[in-house]
């Protein structure tokens, strides 16, 4: 018995290790072109982007939880940092001060309850912000693609656009278009074998070298370990730099928390969010000491690692190790990468950040949600990112003041049928087959949607869940997308969802957003009794089938 147990444990260990190795390797392959691109975009250089990814992954692996969280420079944090670098250009000690203080304030945030607050940020605010960040990334690449230096802001880029268009440099433009063509038009199955961003980076760089195309390139990458530089800032500098550092810290924290939510969903385990923030705070402080680009939990890289089989923090160490190998062994080749190629990759990243999910259903979205999305979007692109988020939250709170989450009562009821209980008595697991009803009294919006999702831990083992929306008020975008998440999560747990609604108007909403198709037309009801009787009928069939 002990022998068998040992073999089983060894096999499990080998499978887990294999998954972590593959996951870490895949995450590094995805991170490589992005780290270069974000480093250049911030103005700190490609090497700083790569070292940022390495340092953060190592620290998160050491101090974070056991789950495979992959961290490094990301789009939103890079955009805000780029603005700060532009403001304090020629004052490296202040830039280092911002990097260090970002980690410091993030560490402080980890001691607060901000990890709970992020769950209640309205979806339209997040959507408007992400759309704005994606748009900024795309706009800022226009100048490098046309053969000019990257501008400090979208407004400067757009103001100088007529001048740049009057004299376009052909070489970088062609290389950027070729990069985009490879990324966007190669068949999807290619990306499953080899990430197309890295493929485009290698292929177009090779073409530019072979043809000796004269374009601006990354240049020399420092292969030596970066030296520690203690930022020398006085109290006045601290007061001056703190607002910017707090902005970046909040953005990095939100990104990290969203990534941990994704990992929770993929691995069906709870990530300790406070510990994740603490580890990122320390990691970003260390990045500041080495002059590396600070960052956050990277959703795409983490999800890719998990899908490749990663289950533990070993994946983060593998990710960092692969990137270290790139610096020490491939730096002579990396210096030949054209900046126009990185701009093409950043355009794809910007496109991926844009919330295309919302754009597909925008004509059906409530006007209140659209107002919030548009206000946050334009403030993000043309004014200030953190100000945009603040205004969006306040605006959403005003528009939905009468529908706050505290006024929503959620009650879970268990429905037992004598006949069903008698049949279940013959099964090995008596109470495995349950029908439950979740009652939602009041408006179902971003706050109450979060409460419903949080109830999932209480319904494990349920086979049929009836969601009874007892209000006649229409659903907002947050609730619509929350419903989609609920459907996906219940399907992963093999739980059938029925929904009870009160009027045809809400039914039309579900139809427009294709929720009806996902739940099933026969699983939408106008009264609870019919839904319960239908669930009982399904359950009897299932039990009889199992009994046979």
Write a short abstract of this structure.
By secondary structure, the protein is mainly alpha-helical. It is built from 25 helices and seven strands.
Present the secondary structure layout.
Layout: H1 2-42, H2 46-63, E1 71-72, H3 75-87, H4 92-109, H5 114-117, H6 123-140, H7 142-146, H8 154-166, H9 170-185, H10 188-193, H11 196-210, H12 235-267, H13 273-290, E2 296-297, H14 299-307, H15 314-334, H16 339-353, H17 356-360, H18 367-382, H19 385-399, E3 409-415, H20 418-424, E4 435-441, H21 446-454, E5 464-469, H22 477-492, E6 496-500, H23 504-512, H24 515-519, E7 524-525, H25 528-547
What does this protein structure show overall?
About 3% of the residues have low confidence. The strands form two sheets. Strands 3-4-5-6-7 form a five-stranded mixed beta sheet, sandwiched between helices. The chain folds into two domains: 345 residues, no CATH class; 143 residues, Transcription Regulator spoIIAA. The protein is 67% helix and 6% strand. Strand 4, helix 21 and strand 5 form a beta-alpha-beta unit. It has 548 residues and is mainly α. The chain is built from 25 helices and seven strands. The longest helix is centred in the N-terminal third of the chain and has 41 residues.
């Amino acid at each position: 018995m002990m022998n068998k147990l040992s073999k089983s444990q060894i096999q499990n260990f080998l499978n887990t290790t294999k998954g972590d190795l593959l996951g870490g390797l895949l995450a590094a392959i995805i991170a490589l072109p992005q780290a270069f691109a974000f480093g250049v975009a911030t103005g700190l250089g490609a090497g700083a982007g790569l070292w940022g990814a390495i340092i953060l992954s190592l620290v998160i692996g050491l101090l974070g939880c056991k789950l495979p969280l992959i961290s490094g420079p990301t789009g939103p944090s890079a955009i805000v940092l780029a603005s700060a670098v532009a403001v304090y250009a020629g004052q490296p000690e202040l830039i280092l001060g911002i990097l260090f203080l970002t980690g410091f304030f993030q560490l402080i945030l980890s001691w607060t309850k901000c990890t709970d607050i992020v769950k209640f940020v309205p979806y339209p605010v997040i959507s408007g912000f992400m759309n704005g960040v994606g748009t900024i990334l795309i706009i800022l690449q226009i100048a490098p693609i046309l053969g000019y230096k990257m501008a400090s802001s979208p407004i400067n880029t757009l103001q100088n656009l007529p001048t740049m268009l009057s004299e376009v440099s052909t070489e970088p433009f062609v290389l950027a278009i070729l990069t985009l063509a490879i990324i966007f038009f190669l068949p999807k199955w290619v990306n499953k074998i080899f990430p197309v961003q890295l493929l485009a980076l290698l292929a177009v760089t090779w073409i530019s070298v072979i043809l000796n195309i004269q374009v601006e390139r990354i240049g020399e990458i420092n292969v030596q370990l970066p030296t520690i530089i203690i930022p020398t800032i006085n109290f006045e500098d601290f007061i001056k730099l703190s607002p910017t550092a707090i902005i970046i810290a909040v953005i990095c924290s939100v990104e990290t928390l969203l990534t941990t939510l994704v990992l929770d969903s993929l691995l069906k385990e709870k990530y300790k969010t406070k510990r994740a923030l603490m580890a990122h705070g320390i990691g970003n402080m260390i990045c500041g000491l080495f002059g590396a680009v600070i960052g956050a939990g990277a959703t795409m890289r983490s999800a890719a690692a998990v899908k490749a089989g990663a289950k533990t923090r070993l994946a983060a160490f593998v990710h960092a190790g692969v990137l270290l190998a790139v610096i020490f062994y491939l730096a002579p080749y990396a210096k030949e990468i054209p900046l126009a190629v990185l701009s093409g990759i950043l355009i794809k990243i910007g496109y991926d950040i844009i919330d295309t999910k919302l754009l597909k259903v925008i004509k059906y979205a409530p006007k209140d949600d659209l107002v919030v999305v548009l206000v946050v979007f334009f403030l993000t692109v043309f004014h200030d990112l953190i100000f945009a988020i603040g205004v969006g939250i306040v605006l959403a709170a005003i528009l939905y003041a009468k529908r706050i989450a505290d006024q929503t009562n959620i009650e879970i009821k268990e429905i037992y049928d004598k006949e069903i209980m008698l049949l279940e008595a013959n099964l090995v697991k008596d109470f495995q087959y349950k029908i439950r009803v979740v009652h939602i009294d009041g408006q179902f919006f971003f706050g109450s949607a979060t409460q419903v999702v949080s109830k999932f831990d209480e319904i494990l083992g349920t086979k049929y869940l009836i969601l009874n929306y007892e209000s006649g008020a229409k659903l907002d975008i947050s609730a619509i997308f929350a419903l989609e998440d609920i459907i996906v999560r219940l399907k992963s747990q093999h739980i059938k969802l029925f929904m009870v609604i009160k009027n045809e108007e809400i039914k039309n909403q579900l139809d427009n957003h294709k929720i009806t198709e996902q739940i099933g037309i026969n699983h939408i009801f106008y009264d609870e009794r019919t839904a319960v009787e239908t669930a009982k009928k399904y359950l009897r069939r299932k039990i009889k089938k199992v009994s046979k």
